[in-house]
């Protein structure tokens, strides 16, 4: 592989105009496809194989026109202190708000709380439900403005008016990626000391993300992709795009420092660092594509889209980077290097990576024990992990959604915000009405039930819908126990009456999603870690190095989960990170962290340890090989990790609890993995293992393909004498410029 990539790198360097033109053309074509594609508004969230989904599907089939996925709003009213909503002045103000709302073109209807009897017994709090003709992502800004204006008119009349519901769900605001790019530019400039060298990774990453995201937008109508599919692709594509280019540019500069000609340096950089890029990219693709084992269509599509963007990032690093290096010339070097006189001796002072590696090699046991015990202690809270999906109760206390949530809890009880929808299929029941009556009586007799609404039959009379309001809040374990209790009663009710009882609604759906993700975590881990172990065994031709990589990754992820639990579930240091409300950890967090962090962790592992393997294969002692790996790789791995942490940490400032949690979790996970596991535990373990680290059984060595990621075969080929050839026209021009 190294030989093939070496030739590719030299070809791209010589034919730089062709390669640059091809990628620019691909970007233009992808952009044109995205611009001309019809808008995809599919944001359906389904969880096949769960009772909540089966009930939802039955509801859509038996209650035609009851489209629960269209946008909805709940406008909550509270009378001034000492007054009631039924007072003439307050009643008129409420009715005026409802009348204004009905005039909005996208509103299908709005229920008057006095007609619909949605005022609490005390008469102080009530709500109006508004249904829209379109999904929340298709709402115009005018519709949201009209809703806000109507609510404000109610406030001007003296009422407390707050709004909740899916109508306020908007696409996440951009900007965090711009912050990440800005931080990346600063880190790259410090790392390389050259504007050109710093700009290359940023330019190629933006091109790769542009092609990937535009392609997703162009294919969205054909593949039925949601508007959120490109979110993960953009984040991961930007991350790995910068990383991969960073490593190849860094290796190119190192080859120049050893006295190589520029074309030769480009070929060797792609042949060696490029090999690591290929296998690092493969581990990320495995982690992202592996999300399909969860069997949640939205996650599968997001994972595959992100995997495609990572593939583009790898191809750009292997072909566009050497082409751009050809355009950059000597400008890719730092100014002091460019201005140094020919033959000037390089600064022999050991760099920080060398000094750190030597320190670890002197005290490997101490470093290993300190690293493992430290991460182990931080991981302890993960044993108390509680999963759930956030609702408006987790929103910022200053938001209208949270205020509406709190008003309903105060006026109607904590369970009012999370009603359970019980669908009763009586198509096979001998006495449909009697069966539904018995279901209702059974539900009323269960613990933790506040109210059960009268049954509502569909026109055919073969399905009834009942609403159960728990006494506990939606995210509590008591509500989860109630869902399980209703489902447990379903078996006996079917045996007695012939009616099938199914529980759905947002609360039940959240419980099922959490359970499904929890059940899928171990199989996902086994798949991703297992395949990556085999891949790394091929790369490093070792059994212990891949095992160490996998165990180190698991340690860093569990520690990161422990930190997330401590901050967001227990509230430790919550005020420092702006955590206003503690509660369950988002259900997708563990599996999301595993996928994203595993890919980035294996990037750092491959780039750092490949250089050690290369030095060992070329004759260095095991300890010296570790020092050599850190000498050449520590600086760029540190820069890559800081860039990723900065990108993720930018999300901590979000007012959305879910986004804040993702940002914190990914940032702390990258910190643990890059600086504790890869920079401390890895060299300590390799120092203790010595030559055993690179041991591979003879029978296994015969089976595994030799991909020559360290470039040993390439070095032998380049060492053979080759007849000189006349430079081509491009080379002539380069010589003249030089």
TrEMBL record:
It comes from the Bacteria. Residues 178-327 form the SSD domain. Keywords: Cell membrane, Membrane, Transmembrane, Transmembrane helix. Residues 729-738 have a biased composition (Acidic residues). Its main location: membrane. Pfam families: MMPL. The keyword Aminoacyl-tRNA synthetase does not apply. It is found in: Cell membrane. The chain crosses the membrane at residues 178-198, 205-223, 229-249, 270-294, 306-329, 365-383, 521-540, 552-573, 585-604, 636-655, 661-689. InterPro entries: MMPL_dom (IPR004869), Mycobact_MmpL (IPR050545), SSD (IPR000731). It is a multi-pass membrane protein. Residues 718-738 are annotated as: Disordered. GO terms for cellular component: plasma membrane. Belongs to the resistance-nodulation-cell division (RND) (TC 2.A.6) family. MmpL subfamily. PANTHER family: MEMBRANE PROTEIN MJ1562-RELATED, MEMBRANE PROTEIN SCO6666-RELATED. This is MMPL family transporter.
């Amino acid at each position: 592989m190294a030989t093939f990539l070496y030739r590719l790198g030299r070809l791209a360097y010589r034919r730089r105009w062709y390669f640059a033109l091809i990628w620019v053309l691909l970007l233009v074509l992808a952009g044109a496809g995205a611009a001309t594609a019809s808008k995809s508004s599919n944001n359906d969230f389904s969880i096949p194989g769960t009772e909540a989904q089966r009930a939802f599907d039955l509801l859509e089939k038996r209650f035609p026109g009851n489209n629960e996925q269209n946008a909805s709003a709940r406008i909550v009213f509270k009378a001034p202190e000492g007054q009631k909503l039924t007072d003439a002045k307050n009643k008129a103000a409420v009715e005026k708000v409802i009348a204004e709302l009905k005039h909005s073109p996208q509103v299908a209807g709005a229920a008057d709380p006095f007609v619909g009897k949605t005022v609490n017994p005390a008469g102080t709090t009530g709500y109006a439900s508004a249904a829209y003709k379109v999904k929340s992502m298709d709402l115009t800004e005018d519709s949201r403005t009209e809703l806000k204006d109507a609510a404000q008119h109610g406030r001007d009349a003296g009422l407390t008016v707050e709004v909740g519901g899916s109508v306020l769900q908007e696409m996440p605001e951009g900007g965090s990626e711009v912050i990440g790019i800005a931080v990346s530019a600063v880190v790259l400039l410090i790392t390389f000391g050259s504007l050109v060298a710093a700009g290359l990774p940023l330019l190629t990453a933006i091109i790769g993300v542009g092609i990937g995201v535009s392609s997703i937008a162009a294919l969205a109508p054909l593949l039925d992709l949601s508007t959120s599919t490109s979110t993960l692709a953009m984040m991961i594509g930007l991350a790995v795009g910068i990383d991969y280019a960073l490593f190849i540019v860094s290796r190119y500069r190192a080859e120049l420092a050893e006295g190589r000609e520029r074309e030769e340096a480009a070929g060797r950089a792609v042949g060696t660092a490029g090999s690591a890029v290929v296998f690092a990219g493969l581990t990320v693709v495995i982690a992202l594509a592996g999300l399909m084992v969860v069997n949640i269509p939205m996650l599968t599509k997001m994972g595959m889209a992100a995997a495609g963007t990572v593939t583009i990032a790898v191809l750009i690093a292997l072909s566009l980077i050497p082409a751009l290096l050809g355009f950059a010339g000597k400008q890719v070097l730092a100014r002091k290097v460019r201005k140094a006189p020919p033959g000037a001796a390089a600064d022999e002072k050991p760099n920080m990576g060398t000094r750190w590696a030597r320190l670890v090699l002197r005290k490997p046991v101490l470093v290993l024990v300190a690293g493992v015990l430290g991460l182990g202690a931080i991981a302890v809270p993960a044993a108390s992990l509680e999963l759930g999906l956030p609702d408006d109760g987790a929103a910022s206390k200053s938001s209208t959604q949270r205020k509406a949530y709190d008003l309903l809890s105060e006026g109607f009880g904590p369970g009012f915000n999370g009603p359970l929808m019980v669908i009763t299929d009586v198509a096979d029941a001998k006495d449909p009405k009697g069966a539904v009556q018995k279901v209702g009586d059974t539900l009323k007799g269960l613990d933790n039930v506040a109210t059960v609404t009268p049954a509502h039959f569909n026109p055919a009379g073969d399905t009834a819908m009942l609403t159960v309001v728990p006494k506990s809040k939606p995210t509590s374990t008591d509500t989860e126990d109630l869902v399980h209790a209703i489902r447990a009663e379903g078996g006996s009710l079917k045996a007695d009456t012939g009616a099938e009882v199914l529980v759905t609604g947002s609360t039940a759906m959240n419980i099922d999603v959490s359970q499904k993700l929890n059940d899928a975590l171990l199989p996902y881990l086994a798949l991703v870690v297992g395949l990556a172990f085999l891949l790394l065994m091929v790369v490093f031709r070792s059994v212990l190095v891949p095992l160490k990589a996998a165990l180190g990754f698991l340690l860093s992820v569990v520690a990161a989960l422990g930190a997330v639990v401590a901050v967001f579930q227990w509230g430790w240091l919550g005020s420092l990170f702006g955590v206003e409300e503690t509660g369950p950890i988002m259900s997708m967090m563990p599996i999301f962290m595993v996928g994203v962090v595993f890919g980035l962790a294996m990037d750092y592992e491959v780039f750092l340890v490949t250089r050690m393997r290369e030095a060992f294969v070329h004759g260095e002692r095991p300890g010296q090989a570790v020092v050599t790996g850190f000498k050449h790789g520590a600086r760029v791995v540190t820069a890559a990790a800081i860039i990723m942490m900065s990108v993720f940490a930018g999300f901590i400032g979000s007012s959305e609890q879910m986004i804040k949690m993702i940002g914190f979790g990914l940032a702390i996970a990258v910190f643990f993995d890059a600086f504790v596991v890869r920079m401390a535990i890895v060299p300590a373990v390799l120092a203790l293992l010595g030559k055993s680290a690179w041991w591979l059984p003879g029978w296994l060595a015969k089976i595994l393909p030799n991909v020559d990621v360290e470039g040993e075969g390439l070095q032998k080929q380049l060492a053979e004498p080759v007849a000189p050839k006349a430079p081509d026209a491009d080379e002539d021009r380069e010589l003249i410029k030089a």
